[in-house]
Design goal:
Elements (H helix, E strand, L loop, with lengths): L3 E3 H9 L12 E4 L2 E3 L2 E2 L9 E4 L2 E2 L3 E2 L4 E2 L2 E2 L4 E2 L2 E2 L4 E2 L3 E2 L4 E2 L2 E2 L4 E2 L3 E2 L4 E3 L7 E2 L4 E7 L4 E3 L2 E2 L4 E6 L4 E3 L7 E2 L4 E2 L3 E2 L4 E3 L3 E2 L4 E2 L3 E2 L4 E3 L6 E2 L4 E2 L3 E2 L4 E3 L2 E2 L4 E2 L3 E2 L4 E3 L4 E4 L4 E2 L3 E2 L5 E2 L2 E3 L4 E9 L8 E3 L4 E8 L7 E3 L4 E7 L7 E3 L4 E6 L4 H8 L7 H14 L2 H16 L4 H14 L6 H20 L3 E2 L9 H9 L7 H4 E2 L5 H28 L1
Parallel strand pairs: 1-3, 2-5, 3-6, 4-7, 5-9, 7-11, 8-12, 9-13, 10-14, 11-15, 12-16, 13-17, 14-18, 15-19, 16-20, 17-20, 18-21, 19-22, 20-23, 21-24, 22-25, 23-26, 23-27, 24-28, 25-29, 26-30, 27-31, 28-32, 29-33, 30-34, 31-35, 32-36, 33-37, 34-38, 35-39, 36-40, 37-41, 38-42, 39-43, 40-44, ...
Antiparallel strand pairs: 53-54
Helix pairs in contact: 3-4, 4-5, 5-9, 6-7, 6-9
Length: 540
């Protein structure tokens, strides 16, 4: 049975310690005691370090506004630790603490704050661990801690925070981890973190080193699972194997290295699985082999100096990727198990795009997209379906692709793309213009298939010559040239030529209609050829 020790006795020993023996340093150490009464040290200045290990307290411990050298409550059970504005010259050790709450509002700890394997359960009246504006010159180490009722570090400062394998849960009114305005010199370590309700908030936080979220599991029924708008991370966000139910919000975040979400599961909040409009990333964004992405990935107006990679990712039905006005070094869209329904690349600026036809979404917005390279280099016939997945016709998208093929020296592919542009545009024209478009397409392929004009010309001349051979026209003058069916047909069909045959002969009634058809066809063909040649010369 534990020995009972009155709290008043401990207070006296701390405030009026006996003089130490020569060569020794005074300190108080108590192990396994049952402490009765309330230990009240608020506003007290305790000059000796103390250790109360594995003790049980009947009542809360009061350390508000106190000044301590160092304090160790390892393994203690106590109703609550009230330590607002506490000042500690060394470490405050709360490892394996079992408590109904810890208050550290405005506390200043010049050493480290230890919460390893602590078990803290709030009473629902506020955060279980309430440390807004906490200052820790060393690190806050809460490896394997269990906090039920939320951890509040609003506006706190520390060298580093360690929440590896911790278990956090929040109440309905507040998040499981509140770190708005948090400032860390080095890392925020949340590897294998489990958050069951409440989510994580890091609005406006600054992390000088890395943010580790590998294999973290963060779930909430209300709000964002991870809400970190305007977050600044000097290093990268490394969250391989992350699972979130409630989406990730990185609006206008600044990341000095990469964002890695390989093999993650992202389920949405208000249709957003990952939202980062206006963010800036100095290296890469990687969502390769994501197990499941539902909802929308929104990186509008984001600048990524490296690559945005979606290789082997599985998108849920109806998922979208919004890269409107994004600036990317590279985009990788390959080997998708299930592509998103929509990809918005409108007004995006991308150095290189690597994709595969079987990973193209059903709808792709390409208006004002600019790029320098496409990998792999596909024939135009294989690349055109990529353009045709745009819901609306945008000539710039065709011009961009044609310019890319010209840059490679693939002139035939460039002409194929420009021909497809005219055919796509034709669908939006009035009926008379569409009719003329069909004529241009059938005759010379809008100027990109000029060889067709010769075929049409030869066909018309041959048809007319056969008809006039069977029913020769009458001579218009007694001493004219002899009748030549082919020359007569050429004279009719080509309006720019005067071979003397048309004036020298008058068609009989049965062939008059052939003259009209030949002349009209010749004018149409000639006008179309001139138009196409003008277009090609102007383009050159």
């Amino acid at each position: 049975m534990s020995q009972e020790v009155p709290a008043e006795v401990i207070a006296v020993l701390l405030l009026q310690p006996p003089a130490p023996e020569p060569g020794a340093v005074s300190r108080l150490q108590l192990i396994g005691a049952q402490i009765t009464g309330r230990l009240e040290l608020h506003y007290a200045a305790v000059e000796i370090p103390f250790s109360l290990r594995d003790c049980r307290f009947d009542e809360p411990v009061e350390l508000a506004d106190a000044s301590l050298r160092a304090a160790d409550f390892t393994g203690c059970h106590l109703p609550r630790l009230s330590a607002d504005r506490l000042c500690v010259d060394g470490d405050l050790t709360l490892d394996q603490l079992v408590s109904g709450g810890v208050d550290l509002f405005g506390a200043q700890i010049r050493g480290d704050l230890w919460l390893t394997s602590a078990r803290i359960t709030g009473d629902g009246s506020g955060f279980a661990v309430n440390g807004p504006q906490l200052r820790v010159e060393g690190g806050l180490y809460a490896h394997s801690a269990h906090v039920t009722g939320g951890l509040n570090l609003w506006g706190a400062q520390a060298f580093t925070i360690e929440l590896t394998q911790a278990r956090l849960s929040g109440e309905e009114a507040h998040p499981a981890f509140r770190g708005d305005g948090l400032h860390l010199v080095q890392d925020l370590g949340c590897t294998d973190l489990l958050v069951d309700g409440g989510g994580v908030r890091l609005f406006g936080a600054t992390i000088g080193g890395q943010c580790w979220l590998a294999r973290a599991d963060i779930r909430t029924a209300t709000g964002w699972a991870v809400s970190a708008p305007t977050l600044t991370v000097g290093g990268g966000i490394y969250a391989d194997g992350l699972t979130v139910e409630g989406g990730v919000n990185l609006f206008a975040a600044v990341v000095g290295e990469s964002i890695e979400l390989t093999a993650s599961t992202l389920l949405p909040y208000h249709q957003f699985a990952l939202r980062a409009p206006g963010a800036r990333v100095e290296a890469n964004i990687t969502l390769d082999n994501a197990i499941r992405v539902a909802g929308t990935i929104d990186f509008t107006r984001t600048e990524v100096k490296g690559a945005f990679s979606l290789i082997g990712t599985t998108f849920a039905e109806g998922a979208t990727v919004d890269l409107h006005r994004v600036v990317l070094g590279a985009l990788h869209l390959e080997a998708l198990t299930a592509p998103p329904a929509t990809l918005d690349l409108s007004a995006a600026t991308i150095v290189s795009i690597t994709d595969a036809a079987d990973s193209w979404p059903a709808q792709i917005a390409l208006a004002a997209l600019t790029y320098q390279a496409l990998h792999p280099v596909m024939p135009a016939a294989h690349r055109l379906p990529w353009l045709q997945r745009s819901a609306d016709y945008h000539p710039q998208a065709y011009e961009q692709l044609a310019a890319y093929y010209r840059q490679l020296g693939h002139d035939d592919d460039a002409r194929t793309v420009l021909l497809a542009r005219h055919r796509q545009r034709r669908r939006s024209l009035p009926r008379p213009a569409r009719l003329w478009g069909y004529i241009e397409d059938a005759t010379v392929g809008y100027g990109y298939r000029p060889g067709r004009a010769l075929i049409w010309l030869l066909t018309l001349v041959a048809t007319a010559a056969i008809a006039f051979s069977a029913a020769p026209p009458r001579p218009a003058q007694s001493h004219g040239p002899s009748f030549q069916p082919i020359v007569f047909s050429l004279d009719l069909i080509l309006p720019v030529l005067d071979l003397g045959q048309e004036k020298a002969f008058t068609p009989v009634d049965s062939t008059a209609w052939i003259v009209w058809i030949s002349s009209l066809s010749g004018w149409l063909l000639g006008t179309t050829v001139i138009t196409s040649l003008t277009r090609r010369l102007t383009r050159s």
